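Protocol step 4 of 6.
Sequence for Aromatic ring-hydroxylating dioxygenase subunit alpha (Pacificispira spongiicola) entered exactly as in the expression construct, tag removed. Do not edit the line below.
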Amino acid sequence: MDALIHAKALLESRRPGYSLPQGLYSDQAIFDLEMDMLFQRDWLFAGHDCEIPKVGDYVTYKVGSAEAIIIRSADGEIRAFHNSCRHRGSRLCQSHRGSAPRLVCPYHQWTYDTEGKLLFAREMGPSFDPTAHALKPVQCRSFAGYIFICFAEDAPDFEAFRAVAEPYMLPHGLKDAKLAHSSSIVEAGNWKLVWENNRECYHCSGSHPELCRTYSDAPTFTGVVGQDGDDTLKNHWDRCEAAGLPSTFQIADNNQYRVMRVPLNRDTESFTMSGKPAVSKPLGGIGEQRIGSMLLFHYPTTWNHLLRDHTVTFQVTPIGPKETLVTTKWLVHKDAVEGVDYDLKTLTEVWTATNDQDRRLVEQNQMGIDSPAYEPGPYSPVYEDGVIQFVDWYCEAFGKQLNAASFLAA
Ligand code: 3BY
Ligand code: FES
Ligand code: FE
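Step 5 output, structure tokens:
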């Protein structure tokens, strides 16, 4: 209860249009509440269909105390379960990815099928009912090659997001993708600082020489204000929509997600040093050239760039109040062959460099916020409206959960 009161007081003390009070970026108690009340109650991006193509392939995904096993079941469906054995609760899958026809608990070998049913439990006596000890399901949805899960039984609506995003994503053919490369970096900063940094390009010209070859730092491209009055965007949308690609700016009523297609600089086509495509066998078979990037974000776990030749996806996983895992995945056509259709360095070098530059920015931001001199500072209304929008979403979503919890506790 003390933590609840503390969190509410911090949220109430924040000044709109300003960075957050220090405690929201650094306190363990706040972090624990965020995991329980935000991350474990909302839809989270957990991976891609193409990472688990065969029956029994699985990945695990952990936020706070909750961990899911996301597995391809025998019927071809993707399902998710809590990674906790129904015997005495041991973690069942102990590596981040794997493949198994059955899930066998390492502790006493209770054995489950790919649909979570308990198949085998040794010497449990005549009254033992295996059907009462299936793995606990985690809600799971997959569309356009993306998997989202929700740990809460009363998950919020997912369909409105799907209805908006799916038409933008389907032309990119991610059901026929493969994972060309994945990178995981741990940034010594709060997860909200990772997001704040992502939601503006105010820092781009000073920090991202490689990315700036192809990605414009125009506030209308990264932010959420002024898109309809931007002729460059409008011309791009008109051309792409005429080619059958949904492109216009759309944002959720509750601010949680946004989609939009943006052009890349001049005649460039992909996030490479030359601006030329990195992959000669494009995803989705889109005929139109120079379609730029389809930008998708969904708070609190993912931002994405869907290009013509490949897709780059980003996953934000908080580890502690000052530690965040950022996982980047490069997806290419499943038949594209490394060394023939693409070169891995050419494909990955721009974002590998950009991620490292962003990691440093986030870490330095955290260190400065930890200073006794820190006080919340103003966001640029021109370049940082996307950050304001993120912070507003966070304060509203977290505040709502805190209010509901204190109502229940009263
Ligand atoms: O990944 C992105 O979309 C953002 C846009 C601006 C900064 N960052 C690179
Ligand atoms: Fe899993 Fe005992 S805890 S079999
Ligand atoms: Fe950046």
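Step 6, annotate. The chain has ten helices and 17 strands.
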